[in-house]
Amino acid sequence: MSRFFARNGAGDLLARYSFIEPLLPGRRVLEVGAAGVTAGASALFLAERGAAAVVSIDDEAGIAEAARESSHPFVQFRTTAVEALPQRAFDLVLVADGAALAGDPDGVAALHRLLHPRGRLVTALQASEEGAGLSRLVEESPPGPAPAFEPFVGALAARFPSVEIATQSATVGYVVAMGQEAEPEISIDGSLAGTSETAWYVAVCGDAPSGLQGLTIVALPVEPLFEATAERNRLAASGGAAAEEALRTAAGAQAERDAVAEELVAVRGERDEVRASLDDALRVADELRAELSALAADREALAERQAEAGRGAAALSEQLGASAARVDDL
Predict the structure, then answer these.
(1) Which H/E stretch holds residue 273?
(2) 75 and 54 in contact (C-beta within 8 Å)?
(3) What is the rounded distance in angstroms from the CA atom of residue 50 to the CA atom of residue 69?
(4) Which residues of 242-277 are buried (b: 16+ CB within 10 A; e: fewer)?
(5) What's the distance, Cα to Cα, between the start and end of the chain in Å?
(6) Nearest Cα to 124, choosing from 91, 146, 145?
(7) What is the rounded distance in angstroms from the CA atom of residue 5 to the CA atom of residue 137?
(8) Torsion of CA 130, 131, 135, 138, to 10 degrees
(9) Which of 4, 28, 74, 310 could form a disulfide with 224 if both were Cys (CB 3.0 to 4.6 A apart)?
(10) Distance between CA 32 and CA 12 in Å, rounded?
(11) Average pLDDT over the chain, rounded to whole?
């Protein structure tokens, strides 16, 4: 993806900064969350367009790359948290993506404390879930759900008496010019563009209206778009061959899976047969155990009867002996 046209990248931010350029001269500016995605280009733009000093804060990875790219004496890159910055130290605070501020009055209050009296906060909110910016030409997927507009404006209005909303829309076209040395007159024909869909709502907040008026058309480089489109076309072309190979691979895998399934059915049949044989063997074993138990019981009964017979014979023998003794006495 072309980094320049990434969502909230240099293309989005520099166009926005061009619109607010009248607010920059001589101002101390804090930039939040833009250094990484623009490699510091947005902070340098602010200094070049008149800001007296620029402090750009972002996460550590973004700041490290931006700092390597920058050597401007009035631009600093830091990983400092908003809460750790000195109060009333800035005339202008620029927050690249204001989605996190929607419904977060404490976050807005923290930014407000950084502003000098009559200072301004400028931030932006994604206007649609699909994304109507130029990033749609280079990104594979839409940016995702957009926060509701009302909580966004409500959080800002709770802290700033004036909240002005500008719209930022994408446009494409040609520049047709006659060669001449003098500064040419500029005419704009928007009849071919139709109705532009809003990509961002840009909020300019302060104690009073900013005085910004009209519209600003910013010409952006087309080469990054051409490169991104060529790369996507190349990937699409190679993707066709890859898709055919994937289909062949899938067909082979399906055939192998079917063979395995057939083998599994056969194995299950054999298993069922073995289980049936085992069940028969268990039934025979149970029957044999029952017969053995019955024989053992019969053996015990016979032994008991034999023992009783022996005891009876002994008793009879004693009786006969006693009778013979009486006969002898007579």
Answers:
(1) helix 223-329
(2) yes
(3) 20
(4) eeeeeeeeeeeeeeeeeeeeeeeeeeeeeeeeeeee
(5) 139
(6) 146
(7) 8
(8) 10
(9) 4
(10) 15
(11) 86
Instruction: Please tell me the distance from the alpha carbon of residue 208 to that of residue 23, in angstroms, as a whole number.
Output: 13
Q: Among 136, 152, 269, which Cα is nearest to 203's? A: 152
Q: What is the pLDDT of residues 204-247, one digit of tens each?
A: 999 999 999 988 888 888 887 787 777 777 777 776 666 667 77
| Measured distance CA(105)–CA(275) in Å, rounded | 71
φ, ψ of residue 67 in degrees (nearest 5): -65, -35
Q: Which residues contact 330 (CB under 8 A, 6 or more apart)?
A: none
CB distance 203 to 123 below 8 Å: yes
Cα–Cα distance measured from residue 225 to residue 135, given in angstroms and rounded to the nearest whole number: 9
**Which pLDDT tens digit goes with each residue over 246-297?**
777 877 888 888 888 888 888 888 888 888 888 888 888 888 888 888 888 8
